[in-house]
């Protein structure tokens, strides 16, 4: 049985099967403030003169690590998880997108640990899978060091 790829949150990122994967935010046409997660109802900038619309914009595909940490234990309730499933540590990364003047949080790509990161490391957004069940692959975004991408490409060519 083929599982269907589904975004965990529709509208937060482009189709993960296209080559130019991007997070999607919105930009106020009156004050140019950018929002992620996207804001579709009103501009949250208290200094906005108002009267603008919120237009969807792809966010920068690369940024710099602002902070990072790892999750080494299963969060307690009310977090929902299968206690019988093995727990796998993961790395969380806060990435500063300079053009948008914002920090976006996300998981690091599989295989990326805190040892691979430092504040200021250049990373890029890549498609990822958060969870899967019998019918779906629930897709999300991950951050991957740009240097790791280049290393992987070199390994694939050799």
TrEMBL record:
Residues 19-54 form the ChsH2 rubredoxin-like zinc ribbon domain. It holds the Pfam family zf-ChsH2. It comes from the Bacteria. InterPro entries: ChsH2_Znr (IPR022002), NA-bd_OB-fold (IPR012340). SUPFAM superfamilies: Nucleic acid-binding proteins. This is Zn-ribbon domain-containing OB-fold protein.
